[in-house]
């Protein structure tokens, strides 16, 4: 991911260097126009610096429309994250059939379902031809998702290379004054690489978006819930397989892709081993025990005693549920209580493919541990 993030950073620097003096966007003063796209309003977690930046941008309010995730009115744009523009402005929302919308949106949903749930972290801001955006750095290689869309959906008319992960912060509807341009110079430098906010998709919307993405403007043809955090049971992705489970090399590969992993460990005679029914392989990469993407199932009491305190671990056998070291309720197979939306309790459904749970129930969990990718449950 570091290479991908460096690629994004270079693109942000290039775009900013090309747009030192943003101008007004004439489309904001004309009739409403649409693009065909897939986007999410997301769940935003703002840092104090983000609110500080928003306050400092109030100086632009006479000249620009500012974007917010908490305000949706005629004076404000809606903060959002666009995964992909299939057809750029202007598009006729009545042009395509219902069947094509269903087909294209289903393709995109399936592509997203072979990747982990993700978060986009926003650090720094970039000037554009018509305004300002937040610089995004996703936790998964989103360029791969976009490439899959390009390979499987025809009649694309992309606006540009779509090689960044941004969120629009403001658009100028009036030519900015020299004072405003100087203020932008100061802000870009001040907030360079500063952590500002993060966004986690909860619901994806497919349809016709507008320049400002207000709720009263955008046309949603189809929407679906983003899958919850997904834990690969013993590192598996396509069903039970004794030859592949708890395979250290595969686990490392899946971690690099952004997945979380449940792995079984034993501690015997001063050494760590992996394996489910019994210890089968000496653990070579002990850093996996404390890796933030690993959920460690301690298979014997010595493992529970010696596991590093930094590890996210648990132990259970035939109990209905157990509590992990980070206070997640880890349910046994076919056991689950749907959490209250307002509850702080965190829960994990285990092997839902062996249960009678509905997809809605599965998607309501904080996390899911399965032998299959999310795609299996669509």
Note the main attributes of this structure:
single chain; alpha/beta; 7-stranded mixed sheet; 8 helices; 21 strands
Q: Would you write up a description of this structure?
A:
It is a single chain. This protein has helices at residues 2-18, 48-56, 98-112, 142-152, 178-190, 248-256, 301-306, 359-363; strands spanning 35-40, 43-46, 64-68, 76-78, 81-87, 120-127, 131-138, 166-172, 195-200, 203-209, 219-225, 229-233, 260-268, 271-274, 281-282, 294-298, 313-314, 321-323, 328-331, 346-350, 367-370. By secondary structure, it is α/β, with parallel strands linked by helices. The strands form three sheets. Strands 12, 13, 14, 15, 16, 17, 18, 19, 20 and 21 form a ten-stranded mixed β-sheet that branches. The protein has a seven-stranded mixed β-sheet with strand order 2-9-6-7-8-3-4. The longest helix is centred in the first third of the chain and has 17 residues, at 2-18.
């Amino acid at each position: 991911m570091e290479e991908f993030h460096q690629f994004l950073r270079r693109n942000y620097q290039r775009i900013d260097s090309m747009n030192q003096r943003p101008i007004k966007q004439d489309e904001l003063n004309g009739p409403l126009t649409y693009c065909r796209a897939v986007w999410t309003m997301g769940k935003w977690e703002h840092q104090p610096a983000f609110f500080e930046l928003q306050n400092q941008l109030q100086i632009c309010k006479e000249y620009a429309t500012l974007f917010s995730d908490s305000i949706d009115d005629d004076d404000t744009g809606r903060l959002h994250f666009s995964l992909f523009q299939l057809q750029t402005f202007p598009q006729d929302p009545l042009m395509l059939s219902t069947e094509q919308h269903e087909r294209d949106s289903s393709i995109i949903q399936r592509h997203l379902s072979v990747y982990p749930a993700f978060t986009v972290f926003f650090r720094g801001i970039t000037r554009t031809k018509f305004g300002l955006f937040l610089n995004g750095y996703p936790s998964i290689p989103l360029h791969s998702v976009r490439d899959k869309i390009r390979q499987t959906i025809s009649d694309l008319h992309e606006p540009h290379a779509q090689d960044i992960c941004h969120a629009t912060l403001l658009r100028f509807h009036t030519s900015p004054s020299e004072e405003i341009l100087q203020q932008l110079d100061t802000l870009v430098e001040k907030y360079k690489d500063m952590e500002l906010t993060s966004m986690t998709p909860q619901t994806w919307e497919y349809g016709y978006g507008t320049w400002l993405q207000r709720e009263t403007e955008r046309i949603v043809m189809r929407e679906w819930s983003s899958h919850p955090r997904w834990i690969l049971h013993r590192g598996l992705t396509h069903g039970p397989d004794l030859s592949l489970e708890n395979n250290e090399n595969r686990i490392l590969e899946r971690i690099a892709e952004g997945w979380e992993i449940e792995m079984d460990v034993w501690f015997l005679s001063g050494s760590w081993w992996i394996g489910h029914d019994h210890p089968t392989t000496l653990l070579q990469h002990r850093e996996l025990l404390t890796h933030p993407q690993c959920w460690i199932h301690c298979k014997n009491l010595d493992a529970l005693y010696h596991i590093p305190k930094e590890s996210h671990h648990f132990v259970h056998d035939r109990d209905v549920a157990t509590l992990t070291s980070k206070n997640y309720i880890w349910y046994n197979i076919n056991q689950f209580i749907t959490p209250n939306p307002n509850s702080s309790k965190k829960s994990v459904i285990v092997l839902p493919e062996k249960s009678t749970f509905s997809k809605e129930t599965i998607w309501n969990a904080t996390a899911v541990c399965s032998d299959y990718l999310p795609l299996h449950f669509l």
